[in-house]
Amino acid sequence: MFVNRESELKELSKYLDMNRDILIYGLRGIGKTALLKNFYRQLLDKNISAIFLDGLKIVSPSILARYLGVEYTNPYDILNTLSSINSVILIDEFTTIFDVFSSYQPYRGRSSVARHFRSIVLERRERRLPPIIISSSALGVVHREIKKYFGPLFREFKHIFIGPLAIEDAAKIALKYVSDRNIAIAIAEISQGHPWYTIVLATDYPIYRDPKKTLENSLEKGDLNIYFTALYNALTPKEKIIVHIVSRGYNRYSDIEKYLMEDPTIYLTRLVNSGIIYKVKKRRKESYYFIIDKLFKSWLELQDIVGLSRKSLEKIFVSNISFEALIRELFINIVTPTEIRDEKGSIYILNPVKHVVKTNWSGIDIDVLAFIDENTVNIFECYFGEKAGIKKIRQILKASKIVLDRGYKINIAGCISYFGFKENILNIARKHNIALISKRQLKKIKEINGLKYFPF
Q1: I need a labelling partner for 232 at 20 to 30 A (CA). Which of 263, 351, 374, 423 fits?
Q2: Residue 338: beta bridge partners?
């Protein structure tokens, strides 16, 4: 299903006009194939010659030969046909073609197929033929192939990362399967903007009639369990230990090293390259690691592992999947002073923070308590649903009093409401200097700090 990828389509068109080869990459199920097929149809509508190859369907060289309409029987000659086709070539999951051809003579493994593909790309450029556009979900494979075999050539490819949809766009997908908008929004929140997860949960929803119960079933014995089990089983033993550690909140390099009882660098690098975790460098000698896929993180926390407690789904929802959990991770990932103009027009600067927690002081919940230093904090009340009203302002004012009573200095106090605010809170927010942050500001925070995995 194709929803709101207009900016990516424009980017593809721009680089195609510049005759740039393009690499599209992102997590499986995030929408790369839908984007590539949609762009292919656009090319045909404009009478631009193009061919589309689905790498997952090419299970032998002879099948590729039939796709290309050639009678060659030698795998090398079949693949080499790509060097002379005067059309835009779009290849979805191109690394699977490498895998298929690597087991046939004259190739000797993936490296020799990659070298041949490199020569094909070079020859097409020399002949001034239209670009090649390729995509892959195998992020680690993409990284290794680029670094080891393609070098400067592949670095000339324009890399386009396909991240999650904005939550409201994921809700549009859910509405194809459920009729209630609030349920669709709840499913989109849980799926973190991932199109396939949204479809899985939305199609199962009529059975359980509750988004959280639907998630629990899918994680424990449904489609998500099958998918995450396969993903987990592909990891090495040390990598499995690390993802469990990181999923339980041991995010700092020093914590991971202490738990693993050896240098974890090689394993962390593999996990980063494979698109399982991402790294945030806060200071010169302080790095943090986070699981990219929050539903995979939730699945990990549901597993019984010796020495690591199993969490309940309710705790997992609060700590991993909820909107406020997403905001807490967003704030810990701010690495540069970030200027925003809030919904009432005031300017605020969000500085990097040391750590972020959810807490309850004196009976008052504080969704986001972000420590800039030992004495200075930012505090935020989070809301996900319709537009936030006066109740949220009152809550942040109560929380501010508690924080000040404990001797802290408040740098910014604010409300974060994804879908915005009701008009009647603007004046009181101005009076008390309460920052009002909606999806517009969240998107800017994401862009300034390069946080491509967040669904804003």
Answers
A1: 263
A2: 350
Distance CA 416, CA 291 (A): 23
Residue with tokens 């008390």: 432
In 252-405, where does DSSP find H-type helix?
Answer: 253-260, 265-273, 294-301, 313-316, 323-332, 390-405
Same CATH topology for 230-320 and 323-448: the answer is: no
- For residue 455 the two structure tokens come to 């669904």
SS3 content of the chain, % helix, strand, coil (to 5): 50, 20, 30
Beta bridge partners of 413: 379
The domain limits of the chain are 6-161, 167-221, 230-320, 323-448
- The CATH number of 230-320, from 3.50.50.60, 1.10.8.60, 3.40.50.1370, 1.10.10.10, is 1.10.10.10
Closest CA to 149 of 123, 110, 122: 110
Q: Tokens 């404009």 label which residue?
A: 46
Against a cut of 0.85, is the pTM above it? Answer: no
> Is it true that domain 323-448 has CATH number 3.40.1350.10?
yes
Q: Rounded to an integer, what distance in angstroms lies between the CA atom of residue 68 and that of residue 92?
A: 15
Token digits of residue 344: 């009432």
What's the DSSP call for residue 108? -
What local confidence, expressed as pLDDT, does residue 199 receive?
94
Q: 3-state SS of 207-226? A: HHCCHHHHHHHHHHHCHHHH
Q: In what order do the strands lie in the sheet with 88-92?
A: 50-54, 88-92, 132-136, 22-25, 158-161
For domain 6-161, give the CATH number.
Answer: 3.40.50.300
Q: Residue 266 burial by CB count (10 A; 0-12/13-18/19+): exposed, middle or buried?
A: exposed
